[in-house]
Fold this protein.
Amino acid sequence: SVHLSCPVSAITRDGSTWSLATSLGAIAADEIVLATPARLTARLLESLAPEQAAELANLDYASAAMVTLAVSKNSLGVPLDASGFLVAQTDPLPTLTACSWASAKWAHLDDPEVAILRVSAGKHGDTHALELDDPSLVQALVLDLATTMGIDAPPLEWRVTRWIDALPQYRPGHPARVAAWREGVNAEAPGIHLAGAAYDGLGLPACIRQGRQAAAAIA
Ligand SMILES: Cc1cc2nc3c(=O)[nH]c(=O)nc-3n(C[C@H](O)[C@H](O)[C@H](O)COP(=O)(O)OP(=O)(O)OC[C@H]3O[C@@H](n4cnc5c(N)ncnc54)[C@H](O)[C@@H]3O)c2cc1C
């Protein structure tokens, strides 16, 4: 059965099985796939695999703001003839890090007069964009869009979504560390598996692949 909105607060051994402390009470499990963000996984593994838990707790995450803008097509200085653009980390552009031309990518968002742009701000080690309030963030991004796309009018509508500590930052040597975490957890807490963005790729296809691999390992 699937229990939604049922956070796990601890995992303990119960004879040859595991017991998960949850908001619905204790749940017994033969095997567990931990697909939670690294810091939470670290907390759940603290007493079971302390060495691996300490390393997982140190995995850095970056935050990002995703701002969806509706702009008049008349205000665009460039044709929407691609899927968007990324801004290099070293570029001096102050706030914008990427812009997805959503209405060029998705037919259901296409409109003869209005373009939908999905704009990202915020990068690892630079939180200034995340510290702005919503109207100031939109204003800063509109300035960057004037620079990059020649947009010369304010947006018709906007929506800001903030993703705090959502993007794990892989450092050189990450795959070897992941292999060591899995090996260590398997030795200290057999039956507990690690999957998700903290390990073998953070794009959705990589996360889905890891989920399938973990399920296959249990089956
Ligand atoms: C702004 C942004 C844009 C992105 N755009 C793209 C994109 O265009 N394409 C792409 O491929 N990827 C994109 N990504 C990356 C991708 O979305 C993520 O890396 C991926 O969704 C992470 O999946 P996950 O299952 O590892 O983690 P999550 O989706 O974070 O899932 C973790 C789960 O753990 C649960 N949880 C937390 N605490 C507990 C607890 N105590 N007990 C039980 N459960 C708990 C949470 O409820 C959550 O469901 C983007 C990410 C961000 C932040």
The beta strands are 8-14, 17-22, 25-29, 32-34, 61-72, 84-86, 96-100, 114-121, 157-168, 192-194.
